[in-house]
Amino acid sequence: MPIYNKLVRDLIPQVIEASGGKFTTRILDKPEHLTEIKNKLYEEVKEFQETESRLDALEELTDILELIHAVLPIHEATYDELEKIRIAKKEKRGGFEEGIFLIEVGDE
Q: What burial letters (b/e) apply to 9-37, b meaning 16+ CB within 10 Å?
């Protein structure tokens, strides 16, 4: 039986069970959950970097967004709060839509 030792989506045990598989799981405490979300986020970002199609990119972005939703309660935050901070930061410093690539900044 392969050993995964990683965070999985909440319904994966039911998917494994429905296919006749056996599994072992445990519920992580808050600090472990946060660590594993960070690990999973890193994994999903790497997978996003390797995508070559629109659909694959959207699938990986969906996983990243789901992890963002999962981490918010750990930080006692809501998606609305996150969105307000995102908008404020965008208004102050801009977004990333224009593709501006900074080459160099000289001393005055």
A: eeeeeeeeeeeeeeeeeeeeeeeebeebb
